[in-house]
Specification:
The protein has no helices and 12 strands. It has 145 residues and is mostly beta strands.
């Protein structure tokens, strides 16, 4: 399923944020039409806009396909803000090839350290994320309809 949104993006950079009255001053920029998902994340007294544009932004991993499996490598140089909570549109079976000290977290659960050879079934539309480790993580992903 693909969701297309026409958005007016008028802010790119946060200048100040007050948690007491929840006001923010922002720098105005030009309007922009995008296809993708906009997520708002308010943490640690900072306001961060995550604009995920399929095909138009660098993803926090490199990937290639082999034997009908997706192989993804997550480098440690990735910005932790790019490791966002997300849902997948298909069921997935993920095998951990190189854990690198990373963790996996499902909504309403505590994070779990990943182990080499571990297999994780992720049902479609379940909120989840990965948490950065000390070394790169490599995973193999099978998708199911």
């Amino acid at each position: 399923m693909t969701l297309t949104l026409k958005l007016e993006i008028r802010t790119r950079r946060l200048r100040s944020h007050s948690e007491q009255d929840t006001t923010a001053k922002t720098k105005k920029t030009e309007q922009l039409q995008v296809i993708g998902l906009v997520m708002l994340d308010v943490t640690q007294n900072s306001l961060v806009y995550h604009l995920l544009i399929h095909g138009n932004m660098s993803l926090p991993f490199q990937e290639h396909t082999t034997d009908n499996k997706i192989i993804r490598t997550f480098p440690v140089e990735v910005d932790e803000l790019e490791l966002v909570w997300h849902q997948d549109n298909k069921d997935r079976l993920v095998e951990i090839l190189e854990p690198g000290g990373w963790s996996y977290q499902v909504e309403n659960e505590l994070p779990n350290k990943l182990e080499k050879g571990q297999k994780i079934f992720i049902p479609k539309l379940v909120w989840h994320r990965v948490l950065m480790g000390e070394e790169p993580m490599v995973v193999s992903i099978e998708e199911f309809d």
